[in-house]
Design a protein that fits this description.
- This protein is of the alpha/beta class.
- The chain folds into two domains: 195 residues, Alkaline Phosphatase, subunit A, CATH 3.40.720; 54 residues, no CATH class.
- Helix content is 39%, strand content 21%.
- The protein contains ten helices and 13 strands.
- The strands form four sheets. The protein has a seven-stranded mixed β-sheet, with helices on both faces. Strands 4-5 form a two-stranded parallel sheet. It has a two-stranded antiparallel sheet with strand order 7-8.
- Strand 11 and strand 12 form a beta hairpin.
- Helix 8 packs across helix 9.
- The radius of gyration is 19 Å and the shape is globular.
- The site of zinc ion has 7 residues, from loops.
């Protein structure tokens, strides 16, 4: 399989749209002409660091993901990890993640990120543009998370009675089992666990697909508007959706996570 890094640095594109955590197989179902490529990373920071190790004077990065920023910011979850300091690698970085935060939907909306991109196209006519959109990565636009623990389905009893006795079920749950225990001890919510409890694995794949369709609605409008440009759509990494019980994009490293779509408009 072709390395995505080679395609990025050797293909003559004008605009590259990065869909965060977009799986090849799900994307291909929407855009059948997409081909698979191997990403350098299984999460955004690893992808950025390994795919763009140098300084690229010809690229402007419109970032809908706070990992790529024009200031070094601290990752609030991992605490010790500092973001990829984009201006050390690109001609200019637009902090679209800040501008496009949607307080109602509780996510960085693609509409706002693409508005920033349209301005960047006007301002940097001779540069190539990377537009990083946060979807289909969490948060899911069709899943409203409960605000308090009392709104979470009563999972503990349900599991003890039925699922812990069922080895096949436990295997299918994988990460979910760990998260549910974690939720119980730490009084926090996790989207995958919450959806699983509400509707099983199907609820998770549906929410992921809904997020992909949500972002693609804006991407399609954008690509139509700029049909005179050579546009690429790709992803930083994939996302587990229940394979061997895994959800999200943490180790183990596998083709599910490193296979990303590569679609070109020309
Ligand atoms: Zn990512």
């Amino acid at each position: 399989m072709t390395r995505q890094k080679d395609l990025i640095h050797k293909t003559d594109w004008d605009i590259m749209i990065v869909l965060d955590a977009c799986r090849y197989d799900y994307f291909k179902a929407i855009k059948p002409h997409a081909v698979p490529a191997t990403s350098e990373g299984i999460w955004t920071m690893e992808w950025l660091t390994k795919t763009f190790p140098d300084y690229y004077n010809d690229i402007v990065y419109v970032s809908g993901n706070a990992y790529c920023s024009n200031v070094p910011t601290m990752d609030v979850t991992l605490k010790s990890v500092v973001s990829f300091h984009g201006t050390k690698h690109f001609f200019h970085v637009v902090n679209a993640w800040d501008y496009a935060w949607d307080d109602k939907l509780k996510l960085i909306n693609p509409k706002g990120v693409l508005e920033c991109a349209e301005i960047a196209i006007q301002l940097h006519k001779k540069k190539k543009l990377i537009i990083h959109l946060m979807q289909p990565h969490l948060p899911f636009v069709t899943c409203t998370m409960p605000q308090t623990k009392k709104d979470i389905p009563p999972f503990r009893d349900k599991l003890t009675d039925q699922q812990t006795k069922d080895k096949k079920k436990l295997c299918e749950m994988g990460d979910i089992w760990w998260w549910i225990n974690y939720l119980d001890k730490n009084n926090i919510t996790d989207t995958f666990a919450y959806l699983y409890l509400k509707g099983g694995p199907k609820a998770i794949t549906k929410a992921y697909m809904d997020n992909l369709n949500y972002v693609m609605k804006y991407v399609d409008m954008f690509t139509k508007k700029y049909s005179n440009k050579k546009i690429v759509i790709t992803a930083d990494h994939g996302n587990y959706l229940g394979e061997d019980g895994h959800y999200g994009h943490h180790p183990p490293r596998s083709k599910i996570l490193t296979t990303v779509p590569w679609w070109t408009s020309w």
